[in-house]
User: Fold this.
Amino acid sequence: MFREGVRLRCVICGSLYPPNPRLFTCRSCGGLLEVVTPVDRGFEWERVRARRFGVWRYRELLPLAEWVKPVSLGEGGTPLVRVDRAAGPHVFVKFEGSNPTGSFKDRGMTVGVTIAKGLGVEGVVVASTGNTAASAAAYAARAGLRCLVYLPRGGVARGKLAQALLHGAEVVEVDGFFDDALELVLEEYVERSPSKLYPLNSVNPWRLEGQKTLAFELVDELGYTPDVVVVPVGNAGNISAIWKGFRELRDLGVISGTPRMIGVQATGAAPLAKTWSTRSRELQVVEEPRTIASAIRIGRPVNWFKALKSVEESRGALLTVSDEEILEAMKMLARLEGLGVEPSSAASLAGYLKALEEGLVDRGETVVLVATGHALKDPDVVRLLVERNT
Ligand code: AN7
Assistant:
């Protein structure tokens, strides 16, 4: 199913493994793995640009063999919108809300569910704060697979739950936070594998391969590398995946410089930002994460090591924004730019404004704010925002 020469590599000790779709952690040190895809010498950036804009335009840079037919809904190829009224003439929003299920998760799910289908499993399983569940449910439906989702009880925005149910997912509500739901999934379906269900959380390095295409699209559309990319951070798979995409383009010689990656967390759910600011080598776990941005209400991000490495290598930063700042940014994008994003996505604009204040970014620099999900995902927060101050 995989391209010739594809390997898995431990992000901590560098151990290499053959491309096993079920192997998520290093057998010698327990670190998370990443996919290494060798690219043909004949690869030409110009040739891929003749294809439809989206995830599969970059097939040569993805680990799946050419003959594999993707389970696809036309994901990726999302709008890049200049936001000069809300932020300035050199600032763009990458609007991931216009993916098929309304979030960036679709980029990863098209790859993950394609692999699940190829494995011949009965279905897929995820723990989720909502968007992963919505996306997994839709792609599983398309592939004719079962989808089982573990959600924190009362912790998922209504639009996302509605999508999971609409697409026929089996929902298990867990008393506790997302972190507890994920632990359950890892114990049940990863440590005791192989099960009949294929786990598609972001510990799955194959799924993250799809998410790296966001970096490809930015370079592809802008024609140059942005100076800074701002990403809301929860479980920290996305910031790691986007950074991996830039690294690969640099290694291929497509770009010479890489952007600084700035990760944004909500003040009440900021394990990584805390770890970063204290220069700690151990994750500063948040036992009871709190924020209005339920997508990123995560206290023990599994990809913490990958994310810290990405931020460090790119000479970026991690910072926090308050719920008030998130709501204000959400309103700015909606009212000044016509962009309806969910609260966690607005954290990237709030984070950019903070980074300016703190001197981490200069006004003249080209910046991309990743708006990870659509406003319709969370109608209750929209209502709160509108009723409070119109
Ligand atoms: C809109 O759906 O974790 O740092 O289970 O839905 O890669 O976790 C969602 C995360 C940002 C954070 N923005 O991305 C899930 C889930 C939105 C999100 C994030 C999420 P990661």
Q: What stands out?
A: Residues 237-252 form the longest helix (16 residues). The chain has a mean pLDDT of 96. The domain at 80-103+207-388 is CATH 3.40.50.1100 (Rossmann fold). The first strand starts at residue 7 and ends at 10.
